[in-house]
Amino acid sequence: MNAIRLLHPDSDASPANGGEDALRKVRIVTEIRSAVQEVRDLPTLPNIAIQAMRIASNKNSSAVELEKVINVDVALTGKILRTANSAYYGVPRKIDSLRMALVVIGMDEISNLVTTSSILKMFPSRPGIQTFDVAQFWFHSAAVAELTTGLYDVLSLPRPGAAYVSGLLHDLGRLILYQYFNHYHVKIMELIERRRIPTHQTEIEVIGVDHGHIGGWLIQRWNLPEEIINAVSQHHIRPQDTPQYSLPVMIDRANSLFYHLMNSQPDETAAFLRDDRDWQEWIGSRGAPISTIVANLFGRLDRARSLLDMMR
Q1: Phi, psi angle pair for 82, to nearest 5°
Q2: Which residue in 43, 47, 89, 213 is deepest, having the highest Cβ count within 10 Å?
Q3: DSSP per residue, 27-52
Q4: Residue 130 has pLDDT above 70, yes or no
Q5: Taking the complete model, does pTM exceed 0.85, yes or no?
């Protein structure tokens, strides 16, 4: 098993000029990217999740193909059936087979469940490191996945098949930094605490790249679709001409909304969305009434909590 050797984040941290600082960041970025793409002890997405995503994204695929892939994992099949029969989906009749779940709930949803379960198993909590709340991390990730899909719905826009998985994985780079490059993670958190600047900006200052790109490198290693790689990589930093309703933008909006929803009541959120000029310019003439949007968004938070409870 290859070991990950870390450069000290303070090495050359106070350079005599900007050129030395740029070289320091290049070395760190090269180190992290090489490790993420090559080191064996970084997690590999289970083949069942990769197959499920590919089948679900192929318009010519059938539910039978996806059923065959999932059925080889008895525990996962049982977990999917429990979830399908829960209040999370609210199906009025009992679903007693995977095939029935695929018909009633849909291939995309079942693929999302497979991916969520696989991801949670890949990144177990590591006790003893107090600078990262893994349980809160996964709630945030699941909530942003739900909010991303919810935004497409309330804006009456066609939802990309990759929306949920992209939202779920959007902060994967933060988890990689915490679990595999913790020396850098600690330095980043210390600087955030002192200066109160956004996480992705602090990451760029300390290591020269943000968590979106780090997550994108690992997803690329997993050979996931380009749409997911780009959405994760660009959810904070992206070209200025990125379309306003593209997946990276939707994830960024969902990410911001999460923090607002967690710190406000529905009526406060409604007032915020009604009065915020940036939101009104972004949403334009699209979307449902504010009350409907708010109800949908808060409902998505509840769905995220429920899903995590069932998938663990």
Answers
A1: -65, -40
A2: 213
A3: HHHHHHHHHHHH-TTS----HHHHHH
A4: no
A5: yes
Residue 125 in contact with residue 135, Cβ under 8 Å? yes
Rounded to 5°, angle at Cα 223 from 222 and 228: 95
| Average pLDDT for the chain | 89
Domain boundaries along the sequence of the chain = 123-311
| 236-259: average pLDDT | 95
Give the pLDDT score at 8: 46
Task: Measure the CA–CA gap between 268 and 270, rounded to whole angstroms.
Answer: 5
Only one residue has tokens 């290591």, namely 207
- Structural element, H or E, at residue 216: helix 211-221
Q: How many CA atoms lie within 13 Å of 150's alpha carbon, on the beta-carbon side?
A: 24
Helix axes 18-38, 211-221, angle to 10 degrees: 30
Amino acid letter for position 226? E
What is the signed CA dihedral for 251, 283, 261, 150, rounded to 10 degrees?
A: -60
The distance of Cα 309 from the centroid of its chain, to the nearest Å, equals 17
> CA–CA separation, 211 vs 235, rounded Å?
10
